[in-house]
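Sequence design from tokenized structure. All designs in this work follow the same two-part layout: the structure record, then the generated sequence. An example of the structure record is given first.
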């Protein structure tokens, strides 16, 4: 990471900087609509679900992991190089302790898991990127082909920062879409009873009264296979409600000043860059 940081022109701008698609995309507050989708998809990998179940207190503190994930992502994208490196070190240190075995693996499947395994890191990374792109296009605006490829190239650098080896990451966005579609059809991605329990705890965020709204967001946004396995009811009405919400969001984005629709972290980062130059 330090080697990568030395190649950055202005460490105050961080690894991406104000001219990047990473800043433009991740600064949008409406990306919050995609957080549940990413978290549900992550625990659809049995080994990720097992790691969450055995190494977190999700039953009493379901918000903790979601908050830590979002905070770390924001620091890595918008922080200085030093801040991003420290966040990455903390993530790595936490992941080192996350290891164990699946209780009932499929025949022929390796039961052991470690959070730092390349396959698990790649799945977590992929769910984040896939959910960010889907949410941005549905709730903010469609990417141009060029913007999408630039964003994906920056995301590949994000993967490198996470410690994912280059051969695990598809070369371009088209290859990534094929990889994700194929991965979803494999038995490696399946919803276990533990994943359902973790998912149910996520639906109560930030308070239980939000569960119907969260169920709509997560259920409508998930790939059909996972939607069915998690047990989400999906109807023409729920699809219409989701599409109406996304349409209203895109409409608001067109007219709201950028200051009102982007995160405080984004503006703090812009101010820091301005103050140091």
């Amino acid at each position: 990471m330090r080697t990568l940081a030395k190649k950055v022109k202005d460490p105050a701008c961080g690894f991406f900087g104000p001219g990047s698609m990473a800043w433009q995309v991740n600064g949008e507050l409406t990306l919050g609509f995609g957080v549940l989708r990413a978290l549900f998809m992550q625990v659809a990998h049995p080994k990720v679900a097992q790691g969450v179940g055995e190494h977190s207190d999700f039953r009493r503190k379901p918000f903790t992991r979601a908050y830590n994930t979002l905070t770390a992502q924001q620091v890595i994208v918008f922080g200085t190089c030093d801040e991003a490196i420290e966040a990455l070190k903390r993530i790595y240190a936490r992941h080192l302790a996350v290891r164990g075995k699946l209780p009932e693996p499929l025949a022929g499947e390796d039961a052991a898991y470690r959070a730092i395994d390349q396959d698990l890191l790649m799945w977590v990374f992929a769910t984040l990127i896939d959910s960010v792109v889907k949410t941005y296009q549905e709730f903010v605006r469609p990417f141009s082909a060029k913007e999408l490829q630039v964003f994906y190239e920056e995301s590949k650098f994000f993967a490198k920062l996470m410690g994912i080896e280059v051969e695990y990451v598809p070369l371009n966005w088209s290859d990534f879409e094929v990889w994700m579609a194929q991965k979803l059809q494999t038995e490696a991605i399946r919803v276990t009873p533990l994943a359902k329990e973790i998912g149910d705890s996520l639906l109560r965020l930030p308070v239980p009264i939000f569960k119907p709204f969260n169920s709509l967001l997560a259920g409508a946004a998930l790939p059909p296979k996972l939607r069915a396995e998690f047990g989400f009811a999906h109807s023409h009405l729920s699809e219409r409600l989701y599409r109406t919400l996304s349409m209203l969001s895109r409409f608001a984005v067109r007219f709201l000043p950028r200051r009102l629709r982007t995160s405080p972290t984004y503006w703090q980062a812009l101010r820091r860059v301005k103050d140091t130059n």
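Residues 28 and 258 are 9 Å apart (CA to CA). We note this feature because it recurs in several other targets discussed in the main text.
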